[in-house]
Write a structure and sequence with these properties.
Helix content of chain B: over 70%
Helix content of chain A: over 70%
Strand content of chain B: under 5%
Strand content of chain A: under 5%
Mean pLDDT of chain B: 91
CATH topology of chain B: 3 helical TM bundles of succinate and fumarate reductases
Order of helices and strands of chain B: HHHH
CATH topology of chain A: 3 helical TM bundles of succinate and fumarate reductases
Shape of chain A: elongated
Structural class of chain A: mainly alpha
CATH class of chain A: Mainly Alpha
Number of helices of chain A: 5
Order of helices and strands of chain A: HHHHH
Largest sheet of chain B: none
Distance between the termini of chain A: 49 Å
CATH architecture of chain A: Up-down Bundle
CATH class of chain B: Mainly Alpha
Oligomer: heterodimer
Radius of gyration of chain A: 18 Å
Number of domains of chain B: 1
Number of helices of chain B: 4
Largest sheet of chain A: none
Mean pLDDT of chain A: 93
CATH architecture of chain B: Up-down Bundle
Distance between the termini of chain B: 77 Å
Structural class of chain B: mainly alpha
Largest interface: A-B, 38 and 37 residues
CATH superfamily of chain A: Fumarate reductase/succinate dehydrogenase, transmembrane subunit
Number of strands of chain B: 0
Number of domains of chain A: 1
């Protein structure tokens, strides 16, 4: 039985989608991240040559996307923990807006330092 | 023959799983416990990332922060272990619910993923702390 799309098109559903997509994307990225750091095993110069590769605009854009995904998964996850473990309060409804704001602010701070 | 009552309960059954109920509860608890640890780790990591990129990343700068530093070694060690617990449990739920991959093969694949993340992560921490 499929849900009517209208039943799913609300902020809580989109928070669920963002949490899942960001979680899967971060899981795929983690082995790459660990591989990159392990370049230091072959010396500082090797790690530096990898870091120079990351200075391409497209890689920088990818890094920005990853920071946004990490911030969004973090903020969405803290929201879920608060929903599950804290007694219900009216202000919990604003957690979604706060999580969105946090993700945007963290990404912008990264972007401003990156460029 | 009477038609089913509109108030009759739906035939809801839990999804079949190769894991016992006790093991599933344990996974649920491990997911939340690792999430709580990761919340702190990720916040520190985000601040470090934003700070570290201000003048561009260099190996010398990264390694000067981490080499021989017990504090960062413990922090990244805890970070890696929490990710190795958290990511496979989350991915297990996503795969079961989106592509209907369930059962023993999924459990084994996710266990292998967790172990791989822990090993690759430990190698990365070793690389930047010991070199």
């Amino acid at each position: 039985m499929k849900n009517d799309f209208r039943a799913r098109n609300h902020p809580g559903y989109w928070a669920f989608v963002v949490h899942r997509v960001s979680g899967v994307a971060l899981t795929l990225f983690i082995p790459l991240h660990f591989w990159a750091l392990a370049q230091a095993l072959q010396g500082e110069a090797r790690l530096d040559s990898f870091l120079r590769w990351t200075e391409q605009p497209l890689v920088k854009a990818g890094e920005l996307a990853l920071v946004f995904l990490l911030a969004a998964h973090f903020a969405g996850g803290v929201r879920l923990l608060m929903l599950e473990f804290l007694p219900w309060r009216e202000w919990q409804k604003t957690l979604l807006a706060a999580a969105t704001a946090f993700s945007i602010v963290a990404s912008l701070a990264f972007l401003l330092n990156l460029i | 023959m009477s038609s089913p009552s509109p108030t009759a309960p739906l035939p809801l059954r839990p999804h079949p799983s190769s894991l016992s109920l006790r093991a599933q509860v344990l996974l649920w608890a491990a997911q939340r416990a690792s999430a709580a640890v990761l919340a702190i780790c990720v916040l520190v990591h985000l601040i470090t990332i934003i700070y570290a990129v201000r003048n561009g990343l260099t190996a010398a700068e990264i390694l000067s922060r981490t080499t021989g530093n017990t504090g960062w070694a413990i922090f990244y060690g805890v970070f890696v272990v929490s990710v190795a617990v958290h990511a496979p449990i989350g991915l297990r739920n996503v795969l079961a619910e989106t592509i209907e991959w369930r059962g023993r093969s999924l459990d084994i694949a996710m266990l292998v993923l967790g172990i791989a993340i822990a090993i690759w992560g430990a190698r990365a921490v070793y690389a930047v702390v010991v070199g």
